[in-house]
């Protein structure tokens, strides 16, 4: 069993309080994603807006239960994200803050770039975006068409292309975009981009689930990017581009899995609170759903700890992401069956949970991509030295 220490228990307790505010706003955000601004004063949203900003860049970590948090570890983020997603995954993912772009800036940015980026986030709640997926090729870096012509001698670089299915892009002030500046595996570069620049166009894509996250499309028409906004130029080519994007996925995959687990738990708890009388078979079925959620959480926490300790390449987190996303779909559909054929009409929150559960499957790689990553990890594991440190895996049944 994986036990949380007192610090993580304090974070979980506070996050559960914040989740009540998220639940109260859930259906409102789902109906009107553009009205999310009215919820920016919620304590949990304010906490998300500065998540992961290092103290050395002017951020005073939140004091919770006598401990200070800015959630720099995967395990902290996993505990936080599960609880807030029980409240509402849409508001959680639609909150302003660094999110995925912040991890890329942390990996690739120099001191000046990080200071500029973090100053903007600390000045006011600011939405950001992470632009990788493209209309025709998804996240396939080899097929990336968005192009960056690097400027010479301090001249601006020129960005042209499109990105699709980018969270919060239509409301963001800045973000990161990955583009190809030459062919080959080392030909991808990331830029730190302000959406106010001429030639940047963003529009929301209507979606059934995760509506609060305002999934968007981006278009770049000969956008001039200042030379000091090209990320990673102080690093060797092998540490830029897609290598850095993989670091983002490895660090945040367990957080996405936690969102899926939170959705599953929200549906499970909805049945507990709204079905006073259960038959023996219904009680047995509900208990099995609860046990599946608990087992998935054990896997998820160990996966997050493995990321923090550098014990694998994200394969355990891939297993957790695939498992929790499938679980979210199974539990939300099963929860509706406890209320009869009209459940999704008569229980709007359950309907929202079903839609959100389907949406989280496509975030940070679908189940097939995660299973492929697990397979690669198994192959690599066969070649690893027997003396290499291992993290035990508990597979939920």
Automatic annotation (TrEMBL):
Keywords tagged on the record: FAD, Flavoprotein, Oxidoreductase
Gene3D superfamilies per UniProt: Acyl-CoA dehydrogenase/oxidase, N-terminal domain, Butyryl-CoA Dehydrogenase, subunit A, domain 2, Butyryl-CoA Dehydrogenase, subunit A, domain 3
InterPro entries, per database record: Acyl-CoA_DH_CS (IPR006089), Acyl-CoA_Oxase/DH_mid-dom (IPR006091), Acyl-CoA_Oxase/DH_mid-dom_sf (IPR046373), AcylCo_DH-like_C (IPR036250), AcylCo_DH/oxidase_C (IPR009075), AcylCoA_DH/ox_N_sf (IPR037069), AcylCoA_DH/oxidase_NM_dom_sf (IPR009100)
Transmembrane segments: none
Acyl-CoA oxidase/dehydrogenase middle domain boundaries: 130-223
Top-rank taxon, per record: Bacteria
Keyword Zinc on entry: no
Cofactor: FAD
UniProt entry tagged with the keyword DNA-binding: no
Occurrences of domain Acyl-CoA dehydrogenase/oxidase C-terminal (ranges): 240-375
PROSITE patterns cross-referenced by the UniProt entry: ACYL_COA_DH_1
Pfam families assigned: Acyl-CoA_dh_1 (PF00441), Acyl-CoA_dh_M (PF02770)
Family: Belongs to the acyl-CoA dehydrogenase family.
PANTHER family assigned to the protein according to its UniProt record, in alphabetical order: ACYL-COA DEHYDROGENASE, ACYL-COA DEHYDROGENASE FADE4-RELATED
Protein name, UniProt field: Acyl-CoA dehydrogenase family protein
Organism, scientific name: Amycolatopsis minnesotensis
Higher taxonomy: Bacteria, Bacillati, Actinomycetota, Actinomycetes, Pseudonocardiales
């Amino acid at each position: 069993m994986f036990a949380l220490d007192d610090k993580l228990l304090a974070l979980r307790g506070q996050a559960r309080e914040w989740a009540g505010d998220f639940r109260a706003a859930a259906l409102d955000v789902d109906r009107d994603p553009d009205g999310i601004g009215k919820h920016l004063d919620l304590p949990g949203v304010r906490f998300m807006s500065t998540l992961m900003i290092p103290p050395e860049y002017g951020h005073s970590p939140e004091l919770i239960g006598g401990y200070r948090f800015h959630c720099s570890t995967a395990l902290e983020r996993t505990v936080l994200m599960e609880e807030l997603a029980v409240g509402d995954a849409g508001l959680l993912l639609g909150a302003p803050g660094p999110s995925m772009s912040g991890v890329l800036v942390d990996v690739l940015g120099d001191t000046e770039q990080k200071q500029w980026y973090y100053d903007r986030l600390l000045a006011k709640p600011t939405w950001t975006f992470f632009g990788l997926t493209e209309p025709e090729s998804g996240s396939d870096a080899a097929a990336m068409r968005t192009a960056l012509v690097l400027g010479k001698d301090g001249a601006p670089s020129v960005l042209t292309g499109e990105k699709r299915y980018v969270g919060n892009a239509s409301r963001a002030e800045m973000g990161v975009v990955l583009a190809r500046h030459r062919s080959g595996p080392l030909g991808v570069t990331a830029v730190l981009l302000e959406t106010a620049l001429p030639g940047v166009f963003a529009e929301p894509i209507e979606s059934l689930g995760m509506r609060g996250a305002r999934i968007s499309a981006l278009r770049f028409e000969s956008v001039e990017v200042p030379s000091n906004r090209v990320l990673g130029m102080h690093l060797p080519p092998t540490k830029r581009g897609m290598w850095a994007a993989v670091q983002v996925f490895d660090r945040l995959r367990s957080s996405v899995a936690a969102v899926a687990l939170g959705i599953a738990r929200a549906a499970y708890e909805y049945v507990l609170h709204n079905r006073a009388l259960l038959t023996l078979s219904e009680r047995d079925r509900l208990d099995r759903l609860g046990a599946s959620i608990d087992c998935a959480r054990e896997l998820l926490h160990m996966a997050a700890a493995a990321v923090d300790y550098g014990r694998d390449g994200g394969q355990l987190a891939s297993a957790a992401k695939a498992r929790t996303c499938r679980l979210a779909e199974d539990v939300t559909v099963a929860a509706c069956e406890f209320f009869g054929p009209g459940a999704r009409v008569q229980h709007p929150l359950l309907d929202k949970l079903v839609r959100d559960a389907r949406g989280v499957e496509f975030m940070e790689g679908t189940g097939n991509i995660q299973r492929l990553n697990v397979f690669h990890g198994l192959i690599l594991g066969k070649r690893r030295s027997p003396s290499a440190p291992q993290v035990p895996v508990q597979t939920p049944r």
